[in-house]
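F.,

This is the one I mentioned.
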């Protein structure tokens, strides 16, 4: 059999198992452990398969399935494009980190550079409805860590995920987006331009689910296990108590990965998930150096130009040359307009004119020093 045809047949066998409904990564590994390669599994009798996987799954593997056959042909045709890859457990560049989890996918779809799979990686995750300051922090940390030779892994969601991808986008280490949808249908639609940029900049999109799979709630927690599994550690920037980011962090801990969390204001709902992780033993992070110091020494890791990226409130990085009275009165926690006005009025010798505060806040917001939160309060933005 010609080499190309043999390779196609091998990929088709992997796809056959991966696309058999109900089988799953654990079941596939059990079959491979008994029979050998996927071709050997498919060649086994139904009775032999049933002894390992049970009658129902044995029948699913052996019986004809037109929908599965169509998906196999679609995937094989898709993989003919230069940037499209089907990566199987038997491939030499299958990520070693993933092999260490209990249920690595037998096959996944990759769009972009396969080289990204060999790089050490850090996951950065957080809230979809993140604050502007949280997104800035995620972006700064991603850039610093990527400059230190860590590929940034995240889930392409709105908010913190997207900011993390953007921060690492133009670095040599790049970024890897793990999707809960088909790799051909990046989600959410608003981030599809970002997904294209990730591919063109030398990164990649990765998905376990078949091509053409739209957003389904059950697929995202399983996507999160891949984010944790691909990485040396997981950094949570902002997260509410009920957050998929906490699932990723929990899975990282189960896989023996480092878990990092950035603290926030005690008044912010977006900080409560991070504070919970810190109570549970996550490592408190104030700078990119805090992350790098806890990870194994990276090969050829160069000093990062922005290695000291820090979070809101770090006294070593606060920068207010003019010591603006509004910024001083605001502090580093969210504050309402009335409360801020009362603080300013209580200053010795205060002479502020009514109505001047709103104009001053608008000016500070335009200068990038302040942001207005969704609840109407104001908050200082961290220096970058």
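My design for it:
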């Amino acid at each position: 059999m010609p080499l190309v045809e043999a390779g196609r047949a091998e990929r088709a066998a992997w796809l056959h198992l991966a696309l058999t409904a109900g089988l799953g990564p654990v079941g596939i590994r059990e079959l491979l452990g008994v029979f050998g390669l996927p071709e050997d599994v498919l060649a086994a009798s139904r009775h032999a398969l049933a002894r390992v996987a049970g009658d129902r799954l044995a029948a699913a593997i052996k019986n004809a399935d037109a929908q599965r056959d169509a998906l196999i042909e679609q995937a094989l045709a898709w993989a003919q494009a230069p940037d499209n890859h089907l990566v199987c457990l038997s491939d030499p560049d299958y990520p070693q980190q993933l092999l260490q989890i209990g249920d690595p996918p037998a096959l996944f779809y990759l769009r972009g550079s396969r080289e990204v799979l060999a790089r050490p990686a850090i996951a950065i995750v957080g809230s979809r409805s993140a604050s502007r300051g949280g997104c800035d922090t995620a972006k700064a940390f991603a850039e610093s860590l990527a400059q230190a030779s860590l590929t940034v892994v995240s889930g392409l969601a709105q908010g913190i995920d997207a900011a993390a991808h953007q921060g690492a986008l133009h670095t040599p280490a790049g970024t890897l987006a793990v999707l809960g949808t088909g790799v051909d249908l990046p989600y959410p639609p608003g981030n599809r331009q970002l997904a294209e940029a990730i591919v063109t900049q030398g990164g990649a999109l990765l998905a376990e689910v078949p091509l053409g799979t739209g957003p389904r709630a059950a697929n995202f927690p399983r996507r999160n296990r891949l984010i944790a599994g691909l990485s040396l550690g997981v950094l949570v920037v902002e997260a509410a108590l009920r957050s998929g980011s906490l699932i990723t962090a929990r899975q990282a801990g189960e896989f023996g990965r480092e878990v990092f969390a950035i603290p926030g204001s005690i008044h912010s709902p977006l900080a409560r998930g991070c504070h919970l992780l810190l109570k549970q033993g996550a490592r408190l992070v104030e700078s990119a150096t805090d992350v790098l110091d806890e990870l194994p020494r990276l090969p050829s890791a160069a000093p990062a130009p922005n290695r000291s990226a820090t979070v809101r409130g770090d006294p070593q990085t606060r920068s207010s040359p003019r010591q603006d009275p509004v910024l001083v009165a605001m502090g580093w926690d969210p504050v309402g307009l009335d409360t801020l006005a009362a603080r300013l009025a209580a200053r010795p010798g205060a002479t502020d004119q009514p109505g001047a505060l709103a104009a001053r806040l608008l000016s500070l917001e335009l200068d990038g020093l302040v942001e207005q939160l969704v609840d109407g309060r104001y908050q200082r933005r961290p220096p970058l």
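Confidence is low (pLDDT under 50) at residues 300-308, 312-322.

Talk soon.
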